[in-house]
Amino acid sequence: MPRFVVVEGPNGAGKTTTARVLAERLRATGRTHETTETTRTPFGNMVRAQEKWLAGRPLALAVAADRYAHLDNEIQPRLRAGSHVVSDRYVPSSLVLQRIDGLTVEEIWSYNLHTTPPDLTVYLEEDPETIRQRLAARTTLSRLEKTGSPELELELYHDARAFLGARGWRQIVIDCRGLSPEAVADRIHQHLPF
Ligand SMILES: Nc1ncnc2c1ncn2[C@@H]1O[C@H](COP(=O)(O)OP(=O)(O)OP(=O)(O)O)[C@@H](O)[C@H]1O
Ligand SMILES: Cc1cn([C@H]2C[C@H](O)[C@@H](COP(=O)(O)O)O2)c(=O)[nH]c1=O
């Protein structure tokens, strides 16, 4: 049975790296599609590129529109065709980033109410100082990366997890401190039935 798995966590926690290693591992068990939000479609690329201009409510709505199109055009068709889907970011990212951008949880949720719950949502946690060093090594930071902090993102991810847990989402937390990407993927794989 195909599974929809979402990898979440603060900027620089290791989402993209982990999602890639996990997808590679799942390929040994069946067809696996790796994807990301915002999407790499022309619309998603426009949202990413316009992040300085699209802020607050307009950004929340644009990200949600990209997510619904992602579900309709990519995630659901792949699941129906029998592929596992691993997504780097999904609804929890909005419950964190759009809050940093000034919206309430209730407003953000209202834009995401009709999204499909994943089979498993994985929250990566990492030492804030390690994350800070990783971000400091980057040549450019996005507006929201500059506005937030690893500590604030970790706190808002805790809130997101409680909020989505109360709505029946199946979620796990992986403490990545001292773990290689392969070891993190191993721990995630242990929670999947294949
Ligand atoms: N488990 C790990 N151990 C050591 N280094 C890691 C680990 N996971 C990721 N990294 C390194 O940390 C950096 C950030 O990783 P990555 O880009 O995957 O994070 P991210 O959460 O996707 O960031 P962003 O949300 O900003 O795109 C990269 O240099 C990556 O090689
Ligand atoms: C999914 C999602 C994305 N965003 C914004 C924030 C960043 O500009 C990008 C994500 O970039 P990254 O390379 O994955 O760090 O999109 C957002 O504001 N809300 C969301 O839910």
Give the count of structural domains.
1
Tell me the number of strands.
Answer: 5
Instruction: Output mean pLDDT.
Output: 97
Order of helices and strands: EHEHHEHHEHHHEH
Helix-strand makeup class: alpha/beta
Share in helix: 40-55%
What is the radius of gyration computed over CA atoms, rounded to a whole number of angstroms?
A: 16 Å
Heteromolecules bound: adenosine-5'-triphosphate, ligand LXEULUCI
Tell me which CATH architecture applies here.
3-Layer(aba) Sandwich
Sketch the major β-sheet: 5 strands, parallel
Shape: globular
Helical stretch count?
Answer: 9
CATH C-level class is: Alpha Beta
Beta-strand content:
5-15%
Which runs of at least 5 residues are low in confidence (pLDDT < 50)?
Answer: none
What is the terminal separation in angstroms?
9 Å
CATH topology: Rossmann fold
CATH superfamily: P-loop containing nucleotide triphosphate hydrolases
Give the strand line-up of the largest sheet.
Answer: 2-3-1-4-5
EC number: 2.7.4.9
Family: Belongs to the thymidylate kinase family.
Protein name: Thymidylate kinase
Function: Phosphorylation of dTMP to form dTDP in both de novo and salvage pathways of dTTP synthesis.
Structure report:
Residues 7-143 form the Thymidylate kinase-like domain. It catalyses: dTMP + ATP = dTDP + ADP. One of its GO terms (biological process) is dTDP biosynthetic process. The structure is a single chain. The chain is an alpha/beta fold and 194 residues long. The protein has a single domain (4-191), classed as Rossmann fold (3-Layer(aba) Sandwich), CATH 3.40.50. 53% of the residues lie in helices and 13% in strands. It is built from nine helices and five strands. Strands 2-3-1-4-5 form a five-stranded parallel β-sheet, with helices on both faces. Helix 1 crosses helix 9 (181-189), helix 4 (91-100) packs antiparallel against helix 5 (105-112) and helix 4 packs across helix 8 (150-165). The radius of gyration is 16 Å and the shape is globular. The model has no long low-confidence stretch (mean pLDDT 97). Bound molecules: adenosine-5'-triphosphate (ATP) and the ligand Cc1cn([C@H]2C[C@H](O)[C@@H](COP(=O)(O)O)O2)c(=O)[nH]c1=O.
